[in-house]
Amino acid sequence: MVPFSQYLTEALGDPEEIVYTTRVGKSSTVASRAVQKGNKNASIFVVVLADTTLQHQVAAEAPNIIGAKSGRKAVVAAIVPHEARDVDAWTVYEPAGGTIADRLRENHDQVERVEVVPTADTDADTEVELEFDPPPVVVLPADHERLVVDERIRRMLRLAIASSRAVMLIGPPGTGKTTLLLEAFQDAQEDPGAYGLAAAPKGTPLVVTPEEGWTSRELVGGETVDDQGHLRFKPGYVLDAVRDKTWLILDEANRADMDRIFGGLLTFLSGRAVTLGRAAGTSDAATIRLEPSDEADNEVVNPEGLVDGAGGEIVYRAGRDWKLLGTYNALDAHRVFRFGQALGRRFARVPVPAIDTGQFHEALAPRLDQLTEGQPNVNVDRVQEVVEGLYAAHLGLLQPVVGPALFLAVPGYVSSGLALGGDVDLEQLLLEGYLLGAGPLLAQLEPKTLDTFKARVVTAEQLIGEGQWEFLESLLSTLT
User: Which domain holds residue 14?
Assistant: First the structure.
């Protein structure tokens, strides 16, 4: 294990025995780790996080861990990239007057101090299980350009979320389906009533990309073997999201066989409770149930049963405001997995088509502005003519249709080429930027269709020169 306790001890100049380090995964509880394992007399509790989304749990439970009876001076979150050995940043939670953050800062540039008020009556021998109600968090960058999409599509998504537990966006690649969901989440935080919600969704959505090898264990939860060789139930992403009171987004959902792995979720999405298994591999272990709730908020009953495996029942109640969202790449449906009718009926399915040429003009404008800011001498009119013309040609002539994303990336490629490549021909950069995204699509076309496309973009509209087209054609065979 990475010796973070030794590193911190050396940085602080304190005896090693006062530092206790534990690594926390996505399904672990910070409080139970703090009071059940390691040296309870340690005055500094270090939580090693590969997943920074767990910081909110550390922040919520820090006052209890530093309670008067626990004797702990501080909780330190070590932010470590997955499988890495070096700490990216430290966040120190300590009371007013604490000096640990200041001392650590002398040895590490990225140290943030968060002042906390300890909980005076916290008993270090008692497991603390807290509910966390974080403030709304911006899930998109501050400079995010709002997606250009038909407002009727945006309204359909909003009303689908208001009226359905589960919503799936379906459309070709590059149409911004995932971004549209993140924008909807952020809009719901600002105006929950517009989405039929009793309160703003909390934190940030849990976004995961299903994989072909997934089973219901990854999605919902199932048996696994703990470090002592015992069977234990490990919650999956659905239960994690219900517990954390945040929405779950399955990005590119059809990359996994969802009909096979949804399992008990089919029953849950039909509005009924479903039993998922037992907390441990014994017949008297607590049963685990997932059920919809008439209340707006989520609730987990008897979560400590996952730790001690005691009998009874562990109940995950998903409130009315909890949502399961996803995206489905229609272009890939023939080579990955489709949704069966039974599963499809559980989702409100919102189509997200490629935008029309007028909307593309609107979407391209800020990218052209960015190009001219960095390259004021560039022939921006030519860039606009080529990019808009190529998008219109794809939209009008080629199947399957793709979204605007690959075309909107061309100005950025041109900007990098002009900034880094010295005296580079603009026509070459435009062709290369287009080829990076569109090349695999062109490589799949029948010769007759490719000739028709060439007649438009080369001969008729002169968006691509003859020499540049020959260069493009010479590379298509390598992209099949």
Answer: 4-115
Give the Cα separation of 322 and 230 in Å (integer). Answer: 32
Q: How many domains does the chain have?
A: 3
Residues 45, 182, single domain; the answer is no
Could you give the percent of the chain with pLDDT greater than 70? 79
Tell me whether residue 325 is in a domain: yes
Q: What is the pLDDT of residues 220-243, one digit of tens each?
A: 998 887 777 778 899 999 999 999
| Joined tokens for residue 201 | 């969704």
Q: How far apart are the first and last CA of the chain?
A: 44
pLDDT at position 336: 52
> What gap in Å lies between CA 428 and CA 464, rounded to an integer?
9
Pair 330, 214 in one domain: yes
pTM: 0.70
**Between the CA of residue 127 and those of 29, 64, 480, what are the distances in Å?**
10, 10, 57
The rounded distance, in Å, linking the Cα atoms of 95 and 398 is: 63
Residues 6+ apart with CB under 8 A from 249: 178, 181, 182, 205, 206, 207, 208, 325, 326, 327
Output the CA–CA distances (angstroms, integers) from residue 262 to 70, 211, 257, in the order listed.
42, 13, 9
Tokens at residue 353, please?
Answer: 């088509």
Calculate the CA 253 to chain-centre distance: 13
| Residues 184 and 83 placed together within one structural domain of the fold | no
303 domain residue, yes or no: no
Q: Are residues 92 and 217 in the same domain?
A: no
The answer to whether residue 213 is domain-embedded is: yes
> What CA–CA distance (Å, rounded) separates 26 from 55?
11
